[in-house]
């Protein structure tokens, strides 16, 4: 609804994605709840002992009935949302879901906003820096540089994001920031991060989003249907055929198609 740019960013930032979704739901007579925690997925035994089926969600102690439930959190976070009996009945599915954490790419980023540019003007795309050009990091850099023409940064300013993979446990973000700023200064001598309006360092795992593995790509992923009847999955860790926002989008088409019982988009015609 808000996507007007040529790159994988909605105009106005990623917050507009959830705003657009909420708008579509409300336009069709639905209700949107935000700022609430889902305690668990409500289930009941299927007919003739055939496993379980989802009947809704329990939100802060109150059950909301639903004919279908679609979950978009990473699949390895699913087990705590289900009762032990459901997990035992569908053990193979939940074991596979938990394996997703082992396929996660651990991503650390430095993000800053201001009048900083890497070159003479913003590239409005990704810049790849190979390992051979780095002194303090063992993995390559992916740098995104976007200005106001993409609807992301305010007029006259840029958003600069530099991402790299990290091994093992989460890094000390203060130490990471110092090293990253030092490496960027060496790579781009004209870059003056001291003049940035703001700088932040972030860390999070992305399932197979950067370092792809055969075991967690395309049809080898989970979903959109699950052995728990009426329960579906979409998003970063589920069956999709791209990465980032594109991957999440086509996983959503697949999940919606399963719920509605019809093909919305033939993914094989696109990829």
Describe the structure.
This protein is an alpha+beta fold. It has helices at 15-27, 84-89, 91-99, 173-187, 244-260, 267-270; strands spanning 38-45, 52-59, 62-65, 69-71, 104-114, 125-129, 141-147, 158-165, 198-207, 231-233. It has a five-stranded antiparallel sheet with strand order 6-7-8-5-9, covered by helices on one side.
Distance between the termini: 22 Å
Mean pLDDT: 86
Structural class: alpha+beta
Q: Percentage of helical residues? A: 10-25%
Instruction: Compute the CA-based radius of gyration.
Output: 21 Å
Strand order of the largest sheet: 6-7-8-5-9
Strand count? 10
What string gives the helices and strands in order? HEEEEHHEEEEHEEHH
Measured by DSSP, the beta-strand proportion falls in 15-25%
- In DSSP terms (H or I, runs of 4 or more residues), the helix count works out at 6
How would a crystallographer describe the biggest sheet?
5 strands, antiparallel
Key words describing this protein structure:
alpha+beta; five-stranded antiparallel β-sheet; 6 helices; 271 residues
Please write out the topology:
Layout: H1 15-27, E1 38-45, E2 52-59, E3 62-65, E4 69-71, H2 84-89, H3 91-99, E5 104-114, E6 125-129, E7 141-147, E8 158-165, H4 173-187, E9 198-207, E10 231-233, H5 244-260, H6 267-270
Parallel strand pairs: 4-10
Antiparallel strand pairs: 1-2, 2-3, 5-8, 5-9, 6-7, 7-8
Quick overview of this protein structure:
This protein has helices at residues 15-27, 84-89, 91-99, 173-187, 244-260, 267-270, and strands at residues 38-45, 52-59, 62-65, 69-71, 104-114, 125-129, 141-147, 158-165, 198-207, 231-233. It is of the alpha+beta class.
């Amino acid at each position: 609804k808000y996507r007007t740019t040529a790159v994988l960013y909605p105009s106005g930032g990623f917050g507009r994605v959830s705003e657009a979704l909420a708008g579509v739901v409300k336009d069709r007579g639905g209700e949107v709840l935000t700022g609430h925690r889902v305690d668990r997925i409500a289930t009941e035994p299927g007919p003739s002992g055939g496993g379980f089926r989802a009947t809704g969600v329990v939100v802060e102690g109150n059950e909301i009935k639903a004919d279908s439930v679609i979950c978009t959190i990473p699949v390895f976070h699913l087990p705590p949302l289900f009762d032990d009996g459901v997990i035992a009945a569908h053990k193979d599915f939940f074991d596979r879901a938990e394996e997703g954490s082992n396929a996660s790419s651990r991503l650390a980023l430095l993000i800053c906003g201001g009048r900083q540019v890497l070159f003479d003007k913003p590239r409005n795309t990704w810049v790849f820096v190979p390992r051979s050009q780095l002194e303090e990091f063992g993995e390559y850099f992916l740098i995104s540089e976007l200005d106001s023409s993409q609807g992301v940064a305010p007029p006259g300013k840029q958003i600069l994001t530099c991402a790299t993979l990290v091994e093992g446990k989460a890094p000390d973000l203060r130490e990471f920031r110092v090293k990253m700023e030092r490496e960027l200064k060496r790579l781009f001598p004209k870059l003056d991060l001291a003049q940035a309006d703001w700088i932040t360092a972030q860390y999070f795992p992305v399932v197979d989003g950067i370092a792809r593995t055969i075991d967690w790509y395309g049809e080898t992923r989970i979903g959109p249907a699950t052995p728990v009847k009426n329960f579906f999955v979409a998003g970063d860790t589920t069956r999709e055929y791209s990465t980032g926002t594109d991957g999440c989008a086509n996983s959503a088409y697949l999940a919606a198609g399963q719920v509605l019982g019809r093909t919305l988009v033939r993914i094989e015609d696109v990829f």
